[in-house]
Specification:
The structure holds two protein chains of two kinds. Helix content of chain A is 78%, strand content 0%. Chain A contains eight helices and no strands. The chains are: A mainly alpha, B mainly alpha.
Chain lengths: 169, 396
């Protein structure tokens, strides 16, 4: 029991750590915070498992924890990040040890574009298109209704397209 | 647009970040293993010290046995083991050390039989506690049952020995105790089955089937003993035999009175820790037992030694089951409902009377719904019929 849980847990970590990190990053803007958040998500996941419960859908489960933690965090600190501060400090996606620096820059631009969306649309679009969750799963993760999520996804993607085309022009 | 999301995919943890978090998580997994926290039972994961003594199969090796003996003599682990259940680390200590020591200390045959009876009771209590915790696997059930059967064999061998030595009284006493103990456990198990609804039903069924078989056997011994005393009584021409029957009945009376005193003291002692209802129930049973004894004494005066003996025996059983039920309710924290087995107390003496006057046909009609007693009385009846047809009865 113990061993199997452990293996499954580590497997889940290897598979979803990047996704959770990315998701955290687009929500908290700071690489360091996102990294801590990722770790916390998995610690919480393990606490859940060791209390004797089982997980069916690991990905949705982890994203749900991440969503809750992000909400908890923002409630605790009441932090608002103004555009000015962001422009001053620059959006810090941190150091990356990958060789293709171009990719990194593209990634940063994508994050920046996403950041211009409202929080609710960003979350919905991101989970739908980046992580391939169904609206139903997103509804479970965020605790909203499925209908509302579908609407947000559509509006969000429409806004994003507009933003990107404006930039390209 | 798809390109856009592909770009996002480039955001990742760096390799060093990923491995750092992974190692932290691993550390956390080690210090916080999966385990439902539930203390007092010593289980494999928790108790590192005692698992050193055991081989991989959970058996005690010889040097370990010596160490365990030392510990056992010094007290601590053995006392801790006493409360362990099959599958726990200390359970082998309980089985192989505590119970062996007790077996060695039981010198006389009577003490041995007593121990066998107690161990059977212990095995059943273990089963019930496992079942109550929903821990009763087929494997554990089989292991416990094996030990239970071993003790049952021992006890029945001893009962036969008593009989062969002409100590009918002892044989009767143990079969009555056994019968009372098994009936109570049967009731407890049926109630557990209801309460647990669907958790391990087959395992519980198997145990109950075994108990039922054992009850039948205990009844067999009892019937045999009762018949023997009765037959002895019929050989009135042989004064010596008559004296023997009288002595047997009187000894049984003494033992029963003793038992009633013991149970009464037990109820007083436990009164505070059980519900008023169960205490009252136990008192009622005890009163019924006293009534039976009074009836038996009347028969004794009327020189109906056989009947007196049977009544004393029944009183003994009723008193014993009052004690056991109280004990088990206290331990398992369930409420043992009375069922038709309870008519051991009131109805049977009357039935016995009827048996003499009624035709067989009537009798069977009256007691159709009287399960086990019916069975037992049928045996009695069989013997009686034999008795009528042949001048002399053969004791089965």
């Amino acid at each position: 029991m113990d061993q199997i849980s452990k293996e499954k847990f580590l497997e889940a970590y290897d598979m979803y750590a990047d996704a959770i990190f990315r998701y955290s990053l687009i929500r908290v803007y700071e690489r360091e915070k996102a990294r801590d958040l990722t770790q916390d998500v998995f610690l919480r996941a393990w606490d859940y498992i060791r209390s004797g419960r089982t997980v069916e859908n690991w990905k949705a489960f982890l994203f749900r924890i991440a969503t809750n933690l992000i909400i908890d965090n923002s409630r605790k600190k009441h932090e608002t990040i103004s555009l000015e501060v962001m422009m001053e400090t620059g959006f810090d996606a941190g150091q990356d040890d990958r060789k293709h620096i171009d990719n990194w820059i593209d990634g940063q631009q994508a994050v920046a574009a996403l950041n211009e969306l409202d929080e609710i649309y960003r979350e919905a679009v991101y989970l739908r298109y980046m992580e391939d969750f169904s609206p139903k799963e997103i509804a479970a993760i965020t605790g909203e209704s499925e209908n509302l999520i579908s609407v947000r996804v559509h509006r969000g993607i429409y806004m994003l397209k507009k933003l990107l085309s404006k930039k390209n022009v | 647009m798809s390109n856009f999301f592909k770009q996002l995919k480039n955001i990742r943890l760096t390799d060093s970040e990923r491995t750092k978090i992974r190692s932290r998580l691993l550390n956390y997994l080690e210090t916080n293993p999966v385990r439902i926290p539930e203390e007092p039972r010593h289980s494999w994961q928790r108790s590192r010290i005692f698992s050193l003594l055991l081989t991989r199969e959970g058996k005690l090796s010889m040097p370990a046995l010596i160490i365990a003996l030392i510990i056992a003599i010094s007290g601590g682990a053995s006392a801790a083991a006493q409360n362990s259940l099959p599958g726990d680390v200390l359970h082998p200590v309980k089985i192989h050390v505590n119970e062996r020591v007790r077996a060695m200390l039981a010198a006389s045959d009577e003490a041995k039989a007593d121990l066998a009876l107690k161990l059977m009771d212990t095995r059943l209590q273990e089963t019930e506690r496992l079942a109550a915790d929903a821990d009763l696997s087929a494997e554990l059930r089989a292991r416990v049952e094996e030990r239970f059967d071993a003790q049952a064999e021992r006890l029945s061998a001893l009962a036969e020995k008593f009989e062969a030595e002409g100590r009918t009284e002892l044989s009767a006493k143990f079969s009555a105790h056994l019968d009372a103990m098994l009936s109570v456990h049967d009731r407890v198990l049926s109630q557990l089955e209801e309460k647990l609804q669907g958790v391990n039903p087959e395992e519980l069924e198997k145990i109950r089937a075994n108990i039922k078989a054992k009850i039948k056997r205990a009844d067999g011994i009892r019937v045999k003993v009762e018949t023997k005393v009765k037959t002895d009584e019929q050989d009135k021409d042989h004064p010596s035999v008559n004296v023997q029957a009288e002595a047997a009945a009187k000894a049984k009376m003494e033992a029963t009175l003793h038992k009633i005193d013991e149970v009464s003291a037990f109820i007083t002692a436990k009164k505070d820790s059980v519900t008023a209802e169960s205490a009252a129930k136990a008192e009622a049973k005890l009163a019924a037992a006293r009534g039976l004894v009074a009836e038996g004494q009347m028969k004794l005066e009327a020189k109906a030694y056989g009947e007196a003996f049977a009544l004393f025996l029944k009183a003994h059983m009723v008193a014993q089951s009052a004690k056991l039920e109280l004990n088990l309710e206290h331990r398992l924290k369930i409420d043992i409902k009375a069922n038709d087995d309870d008519d051991d107390a009131g109805q049977n003496p009357a039935n016995e009377e009827k048996q003499r006057t009624d035709t067989d046909q009537d009798r069977n009609d009256q007691k159709e719904n009287n399960g086990r007693n019916d069975e037992r009385d049928k045996n009695l009846l069989e013997l009686k019929l034999q008795q009528d047809s042949q001048a002399k009865i053969e004791v089965r």
